[in-house]
Hints:
By secondary structure, chain A is mostly helical.
Amino acid sequence: MLPELLCIAVLGGILAVDRVAGWSFMLSQPLVGACLVGALIRPGPEWELWALRVPIAVGAILQLLLTNASLPAAQRPHDTAGAGVIGSAVALLGLARLHPVLPISAAGLLWVVVGVAAGLLAAVAGGWFARLSGASVASAANRADALADQGALGSFERLYGGGLVRLFLGGALWAWGGTLFLLGLALWVLPYLAETFTARRAGIVFAALLGAGLAAAFHANVRRRAHGLRWAVLGVVVTFLLLRAFHAGPDVGAGDSPGGAP
Amino acid sequence: MNELDPDARVMREPVIERPPAAIRAGDLARVATRSLQIQAFLSPERMQGLGFGFSLLPVIRRIYPDPKARGVALRRHLHYFATHPVLAGFVLGAAARLEERRANGAALTDDGIDSYKRALASPLAALGDPLFWVTLRPLAGLLGVIAVAVLPHPPEGEPDLRVLLCPLVLVLTYNAVALPYRWIGVSRGYEHADRPDVLLRSLRLAELKTFLERAGAFAFGGLLALLAAGLDIPSSAWGRQAGGRVLELTPLLLGGLVGFVGMRRWPARSVEVGLAALLAGAILAAAR
C-alpha cells in the first residue's frame, strides 16, 4: 500500500498548492482529485472495472455537492481538494480489502457511498487542519518585513519558496494521514455493518446524495441568476430534443454505471 | 479629481533628470509567472500582500540597482492587498509602471502608489469574484459532471477513459476563460496604467458573467434532462406504474429536498448539507 499512499500524498500536495497558493487551475476540484486518484491507484486486476468507475462517481457526486456558489470569504474553511482525493482513495483501497466481508452485489454503489461519506468528512477535517497551519503565516509576514528592511531580497524569495513547500507538504501530509485514518475507520466499522449493507440500501443512500447534489447544483447555477429558470427549462427542452434526435439517451442508470441513479 | 488617476493624486514635484530605468518584456513575463503563487502567504491581515511583493521582485530588481532601494520598494508592496488572483496581473502591471516612473524620478509617494493599487484592485475583485468563483467554477464543474453522463462507456475489457476526460473537461472549461486574463494581465496593466477606467471597461467582465450565468443554467437543465432520460421518467411506463415509480424516486426527492432547503438556509455550508443528506438517506434506507 506504500506506493499508493505516496501517490496520494504527492497528488494531495499538488492540489493543495493549486487551491491555496493561487494557481487556481481548478485541479483542486473534487471531480479532478477523485478521478486522478482513480487513474493512479490500481487496487488489482480483478477490480479493473470498478477501479475507474467508483472514482468517477465519487468525484461527480462530490463535485455537485461541494460546488459552492458563495464567495470564498463567506464559506466555511472546507478542504474540497482533499475531499476528492481522500474520498476516492478510501473507496478504492477499501474496495479491495473489504471485499470478502461485504456482499458483492452492493460493491459498486456501496463504495461510491463510502467514498462520498469519506470525502465529506475529509472536507470538514481538512478545514480544521488548514486552520492549524494559519499561525505560521503571521510570523512569516513579520519575517518578510524584516528581510525587506535589510534589502535581503534573496532571503525573502527563499522564505516565500519555503511557504510554497510548506503548503505542498501540508496538503501531502493531510491527504496521506486523512486517507489512512478514514480507511482505517472504514476497515474497522464496515465489517460490523456488513449485514446491513445491501445493494438496495446503498442505492437509497446514493440516490439521496445525488438528489442533494442536484439541489446544490441548482443553487449554484440557476437560483438567483437573471432568467436562470428560463435558461434551465430551455436546457431541458434542447437536451430532450437532442436525445430524441439521436434516438438514444446516455446510460445514466445504475444498471450500467455507478455514476447514475439507482 | 479621478481617484484612479495616479498623476492627479501623487504628482507633487517636477521630474528629475536621471538615466531611465526601463522594464523589459521578460521582466513582465516573470512577474506574470510569479503571480501564479500570489496567495501562498494568504492571511486575513495582509491577504495577498506578501505575494504581491514576491511577484513584483523581477521588476524591482531591474529598476533599482541599489539593494537598499530594492528593499524599500519591496517593503512598499508587502502591505494589505486583495483582489481576485486571476486578475491580480493587471494591478501588478500597473504597479510595475508606477515603480518604473518612480525609479526614473517621478515624485510618486508610497501612499499614492498604495492608493492606486487599492483603487484598481477593488473593482477587479468586485467583478472577478462573481465571475470566476460564483459563475465560472460551478459551470466548469457541471460540465465535468455532464461529461460523465454523455461520454460513451468503454467496451468490455477496455479502460474507462472518462476518468481522465471528465476532469479534463472541467479544467479546460475554466482555464479557457481564466488563462487569457492571466496571460495578458501584467502587460495590459503596464500598458494602461494611466487609464485604469479604460482598462476595466476593456475587460468586459460583466458581459462575460451574464453569458456564463445563462450557460450554467442551460447546462443544469441539460443535466436534469439527461438524468430524467436515464431514469426513463418520460416513458409510457411512468403512467402505468406511477405509484411504484414515486416510491423508487423517494430517496432522490428526499435528498433533493434536504439539499434545497439546506442550501437555501445555509448557502455557505454545502459540506454539512451533504452530510445531512447522507444521514437522511441512511435513515430512509434503514426504515425500508
